[in-house]
Design brief:
The chain is an all-alpha fold and 77 residues long. It has helices spanning 3-6, 14-46, 52-75.
Length: 77
Protein backbone atom coordinates (compact mmCIF):
# COMPACT_ATOMS: atom_id res chain seq x y z
CA UNK A 1 0.00 0.00 0.00
CA UNK A 2 1.39 3.38 -0.97
CA UNK A 3 2.06 6.17 1.48
CA UNK A 4 -0.64 8.48 0.12
CA UNK A 5 -3.26 5.75 0.12
CA UNK A 6 -2.50 5.08 3.80
CA UNK A 7 -3.14 8.77 4.46
CA UNK A 8 -6.60 8.45 2.91
CA UNK A 9 -5.97 9.78 -0.59
CA UNK A 10 -7.58 7.92 -3.44
CA UNK A 11 -7.36 8.11 -7.17
CA UNK A 12 -9.35 10.99 -8.68
CA UNK A 13 -12.46 10.34 -10.72
CA UNK A 14 -14.10 12.32 -13.51
CA UNK A 15 -15.82 14.67 -11.12
CA UNK A 16 -12.54 15.66 -9.51
CA UNK A 17 -11.04 16.36 -12.91
CA UNK A 18 -14.07 18.43 -13.92
CA UNK A 19 -13.82 20.48 -10.73
CA UNK A 20 -10.11 21.06 -11.35
CA UNK A 21 -10.66 22.14 -14.94
CA UNK A 22 -13.48 24.47 -13.96
CA UNK A 23 -11.36 26.12 -11.28
CA UNK A 24 -8.52 26.55 -13.79
CA UNK A 25 -10.89 28.25 -16.24
CA UNK A 26 -12.26 30.56 -13.56
CA UNK A 27 -8.79 31.51 -12.31
CA UNK A 28 -7.58 32.13 -15.88
CA UNK A 29 -10.59 34.36 -16.55
CA UNK A 30 -10.10 36.38 -13.36
CA UNK A 31 -6.38 36.74 -14.02
CA UNK A 32 -7.03 37.86 -17.60
CA UNK A 33 -9.65 40.41 -16.60
CA UNK A 34 -7.47 41.70 -13.75
CA UNK A 35 -4.35 42.07 -15.89
CA UNK A 36 -6.30 43.68 -18.75
CA UNK A 37 -7.87 46.18 -16.35
CA UNK A 38 -4.52 46.89 -14.71
CA UNK A 39 -2.92 47.39 -18.15
CA UNK A 40 -5.66 49.79 -19.19
CA UNK A 41 -5.36 51.72 -15.91
CA UNK A 42 -1.58 51.89 -16.30
CA UNK A 43 -1.92 53.17 -19.85
CA UNK A 44 -4.44 55.85 -18.86
CA UNK A 45 -2.47 56.85 -15.77
CA UNK A 46 1.04 57.02 -17.21
CA UNK A 47 0.43 57.26 -20.95
CA UNK A 48 3.07 54.65 -21.72
CA UNK A 49 1.89 51.72 -23.78
CA UNK A 50 4.47 49.09 -22.80
CA UNK A 51 4.20 48.54 -19.06
CA UNK A 52 4.74 45.63 -16.68
CA UNK A 53 1.02 44.74 -16.48
CA UNK A 54 0.74 44.67 -20.26
CA UNK A 55 3.82 42.46 -20.57
CA UNK A 56 2.36 40.09 -17.97
CA UNK A 57 -0.98 40.08 -19.74
CA UNK A 58 0.49 39.41 -23.18
CA UNK A 59 2.85 36.70 -21.93
CA UNK A 60 0.01 34.91 -20.13
CA UNK A 61 -2.10 35.05 -23.29
CA UNK A 62 0.75 33.73 -25.42
CA UNK A 63 1.32 30.79 -23.06
CA UNK A 64 -2.41 30.03 -22.90
CA UNK A 65 -3.00 30.08 -26.65
CA UNK A 66 0.13 28.11 -27.51
CA UNK A 67 -0.83 25.40 -25.03
CA UNK A 68 -4.45 25.49 -26.26
CA UNK A 69 -3.40 24.95 -29.87
CA UNK A 70 -0.90 22.24 -28.89
CA UNK A 71 -3.32 20.25 -26.75
CA UNK A 72 -6.15 20.68 -29.26
CA UNK A 73 -3.97 19.16 -31.96
CA UNK A 74 -2.88 16.36 -29.62
CA UNK A 75 -6.47 15.51 -28.66
CA UNK A 76 -7.61 15.62 -32.27
CA UNK A 77 -10.40 18.16 -31.92
Amino acid sequence: MSFLRRLGFERGDERGEAIGLRSCRISWTLTTVGLAGWSLYSFVDTGTFLSAPLILFLSSQIVYWISFVYYSSEMGS
